[in-house]
User: Fold AcrR family transcriptional regulator from Kineosporia succinea.
Amino acid sequence: MVRWQPNARTRLEDAALELFAERGFEAVSAAEIAGLAGLTKATFFRHFRDKPEVLFWGQDLLADTFRQGIADGAAGAPPLELVRSAILSAAPIFDADRHRHAATRQRLIASSPSLNERAVLKRTALARAMTEALAARGVSTRTAEVAGLAGTTAFNAAYTQWATNPAFRGFTGLARRELDRTVRALAELTGPASDDVAPPSPHEPLEQN
Amino acid sequence: MVRWQPNARTRLEDAALELFAERGFEAVSAAEIAGLAGLTKATFFRHFRDKPEVLFWGQDLLADTFRQGIADGAAGAPPLELVRSAILSAAPIFDADRHRHAATRQRLIASSPSLNERAVLKRTALARAMTEALAARGVSTRTAEVAGLAGTTAFNAAYTQWATNPAFRGFTGLARRELDRTVRALAELTGPASDDVAPPSPHEPLEQN
Assistant:
C-alpha cells in the first residue's frame, strides 16, 4: 500500500547530504539514502531521476523562477532590469532551511569532476532560461543571450557567497551587489574606449559668434 | 613493432566520421574506427581519451588558440578588442579540410543528448579560456568573465554558420559580422535606457553671457 509521505523530498535530501558528508558522494547508494529517510528506493527515484539530482533539483526550480520573473516583469522594462527582477524574485528560495546543506553541497561538487560537469550544465540551463524568456518578450536574440549570460555571472557569484558563508544571510543584498558589479562590468566593456560613445562628427565645428 | 603513423589523427577522424554518418555515433566502436583507419585501438586511445573526443579535440586546440591570441594582443587594447583578435586568430583552423566533416559533426551532436552535453561543456571551456587569459592581463574578474562569455556567443554563431553551410566559405567574414552583432548587443544593454549614459548634472546650468 502506497501511503502519502509528508516532505519525502526534504527527508531524502537531508538523508543524502548527511551520508554524502560522512562517506563521499560515490560511496553512497540511492537505496541507502532512502533507507535512512525511512522510504523506499522507488520513492527516491520518483523524486530524483538519478542520484546527482538530489544535489541539483533546486536548479530546475530556479530556472522556472527566472523564467517566470522575466515573463512577469514590467512592460517596457529594459532587458537587464528584467534579469535583475527575475534574480531577486528567487530570493525566497534561499532560506535558512536551504542554507543548512549549501556549504556541504558546494564542497561535494568541487570534489567530483562529474558533479562539477553537472553543475556547469545546470548553470548553462539557468542562462538559457533567462535568454529564452527575454526572447519571448521580443528582446533580440543576441541581446537576450548576452543578458542571460551576464545575469548568470551575477547570480553565480551571489549564490557562491551565500552558500559558502558559514552563517545564514539574506540572498537579496548579495544579489543586488553582484548585479551592480555585472552592470558596471558591461558598462566598462562598452564604455569610454568604445567607438560608439563619442562618434566623430562628420560636420565642421559650428561657427562660434 | 610500433611504427610512425603519418597523420594518424586525421585518418582516425576521417574513419570515425564516415562510420558515424553511416551508422550513428553509439553503434560504432573505437576498435572499428581504428580498423577502418588501418590502425590499432591502442593508437586510437593515444590520440583521443574516449570516443566522443574524436568530435571534440578541435575545441581544445581552439581554447589554446584563444588563450594565446589574448596573451599576444596589443598592450593597452580594451578587453573586447583582445577577444576579437583572439577569435579572428583562430580562422586558419577553419580550413576546407576541417569543413568536410563539420556539418556531419553538427548533426551528430544535435542528435545525441550526451554529445550535446559535451558540446556545452567544451563551449564553457572556450569562454573560460578567454576569461582566464583576460584576467591574466589584469582585466578585472567580472569584466573578464562577461567579455569571455560575450565573445563565445559571437564565436558560436559564426562557427554554426560556417559548419552548416554546405559550401566552404572563410571564417573571418562570419566572425567579424557576429563580433559586431555582439558588440551592438552589449551597447544595447548598457545604452540609452541605462542610468550612466546621461547622469543628471548636480550643477546649475552655466550662466551664458
Residues 95 and 150 of chain A are 24 Å apart (CA to CA).
